[in-house]
Write a structure and sequence with these properties.
It is found in: Cell membrane. Keywords: Cell membrane, Membrane, Transmembrane, Transmembrane helix, Transport. It comes from Paenibacillus woosongensis. This is Iron ABC transporter. With 312 residues, this protein is an all-alpha fold. It has a single domain, classed as ABC transporter involved in vitamin B12 uptake, BtuC.
Length: 312
């Protein structure tokens, strides 16, 4: 958090940081920079936490060790609906973005799971990943097709498309917070039942778990967290994958610990990536979605090679 407040195209000294945080009467350029970075840092932490929890839930629901909102195409579905809203409905507020992003994320998640469930063996990890990759590619093409002939849409969201937390505002955070709270509550409540689900549907059913309803509710929470974050920051990929895998390596598979610690891990990953993007792109900045993709893509390849895409 301190690094996010002091590092960037303009380095902030300790004295300037204190002025910006605690002395509201100070109206220097440096103090104003600190105040602007506060909302950006808060959203990086909250958005990273949401993506971390979403990744943990999606991996558990699909029993797929490399499931992630970006890999399964959920981010791209949210992006498509938001871009359509801007191009055809003239939406411009965070509240409108969020509802459209949630609808797009939910429809895409259902579509990918439906495609991945076809054929022999049901929804296997490799089929889900392939269905998600194909769906994401198709939806990305639609997003591009909608934006290219509409320069005003492209100008307005060219940074949003690659994922950025630089435009975070307190009003946007206030709009995002209720979705984060509801998603976290659902994730925490369903964690014990998801532990039983990891043992197999038959074992979970024997323990009194309604597996169909559990998957629906947990997936809804994952889509809620991912869609709300995507609406405000754009499609930021690989955070859920990296956060959850790091915590599983340290703490094991118990979701009662994995879910809250994935939130912390996701917050750290997204905030550090944002700081790195500012430093690498100085005096401008490199959007955080580019940084997470640059880090996450090689790790995804390594995980797929080592696990051979086995089910959890």
């Amino acid at each position: 958090m301190i690094a996010s407040l002091v590092l960037g195209s303009r380095l902030i000294s300790f004295h300037e940081l204190i002025d910006g945080l605690f002395h509201r009467d100070v109206d220097s350029y440096e103090a104003n920079v600190v105040r602007k970075r506060i909302s950006r840092t808060v959203f990086s932490l909250l958005g990273g936490a949401a993506l971390g929890i979403s990744g943990a839930l999606m991996q558990s629901v699909t029993r797929n060790p490399i499931a992630d909102p970006s890999i399964l195409g959920v981010n791209t579905g949210a992006s498509l609906f938001v871009v359509c809203g801007i191009a055809f409905l003239n939406i411009s507020t965070a509240n409108q973005y969020i509802w459209l992003a949630l609808a797009g994320a939910a429809i895409t998640a259902v579509f990918v799971f439906g495609i991945g469930s076809m054929g022999r063996g049901g929804a296997t990890p490799i089929k889900l990943v392939l269905a998600g990759a194909a769906t994401s590619a198709a939806l990305s093409s639609l997003v591009t097709a909608i934006m290219i002939p509409r320069s005003y849409v492209m100008d307005q969201f060219r940074f949003w498309q690659v994922g950025s937390v630089g435009s975070a505002t307190w009003s946007g955070i206030a709009t995002f917070a209720p979705f984060l709270i509801v998603g976290i509550m659902i994730a925490v409540i369903t964690a014990p039942a998801l532990n039983a689900l990891a043992l197999g549907d038959e074992v979970a059913t024997g323990q009194g778990v309604r597996t169909g309803m559990l998957r629906l509710v947990a997936a809804l929470a994952g889509v809620l967290l991912c869609g709300a974050t995507t609406a405000l920051a754009g499609p930021i990929g690989f955070v859920g994958l990296l956060a959850t895998h790091a915590i599983r390596l340290i703490l094991g598979p118990d979701l009662r610990f994995v879910i809250p610690m994935s939130a912390m891990s996701g917050a750290i990953i997204l905030t550090i990536s944002d700081v790195c993007g500012r430093l690498i792109g100085s005096p401008g900045e490199l959007e955080v979605g580019v940084v997470t993709a640059f880090i996450g893509a090689p790790i995804l390849i390594i995980l797929a090679m080592k696990s051979k895409v086995r089910s959890l």
